[in-house]
Amino acid sequence: MQIGGRITLPLFLFMANFLFSGPIPPFNNPPIEPLFFTPRQFFISAISLGITTTITTTVDQDYVIGQEIRLLIPNGFGCRGLNERTGFVIAIPSANQVTVDIFSIGIDPFINANLTTKAQIIAIGDVNTGAINNDGNLDTLTYIPGSFRNISPL
Predict the structure, then answer these.
(1) Which domain holds residue 71?
(2) What value does the mean pLDDT take over residues 118-129?
(3) Peptide bond into 109 cis (omega under 30)
(4) What is the 8-class DSSP label of residue 136?
(5) Residue 59 domain-assigned (yes or no)
(6) pTM of the model
(7) Which of 64, 102, 121, 147 has the fewest CB within 10 Å, making it most exposed?
């Protein structure tokens, strides 16, 4: 476009080159990496059924007593009655075992199948959830037992 002998650009083209978005941080919304949070999800290698249920994981786990968990057991592993069940950790018999308060008598046994999707035990909750008492959160811990804690090096 030419006005009075000068060539000018339309305003929208001029401004598109000079938009200001504010300060640019060293990183923008880094991806959430599961290894940066504790407790994590673990693969199940065995399940002992009974009045309480004992779950053995393939590696040492980092759950605590009182931690709420969920079981994800795909087809092919047996124990279908425990799929999507939630419960609380009531004991930690060894570094790679947890006992949860899920009644599992009468459920078909666990089969350690070699499938692509593995049976998992996962933690439920984060530091933003949990019970608030009558005094607000003044008398509560700084974190809910077993809640996710950011251990990111970033």
Answers:
(1) 39-126+142-147
(2) 73
(3) no
(4) B
(5) yes
(6) 0.62
(7) 64
Residue of 95, 89, 91 lying closest to 144 (CA atoms): 89
Residue 154 lies in a domain: no
Query: Which amino acid would we find at residue 19?
Result: L
With contact defined as beta carbons under 8 Å apart, do 37 and 148 qualify? Answer: yes
State the first-to-last Cα distance of the chain, in angstroms, to the nearest integer. Answer: 50
Label residue 23 by pLDDT band (50, 70, 90). low
Residue 103 is part of a domain; what is its CATH number? 2.40.30.180
What DSSP character marks residue 35? G
Determine the average pLDDT of the residues in 68-82. Answer: 91
Question: For the chain, how many structural domains are there in total?
Answer: 1
Q: Residue 75: exposed, middle, or buried by beta-carbon count in 10 A (0-12, 13-18, 19+)?
A: exposed
Tokens linked to 149? 């804690």
Tell me the average pLDDT of the chain. 75
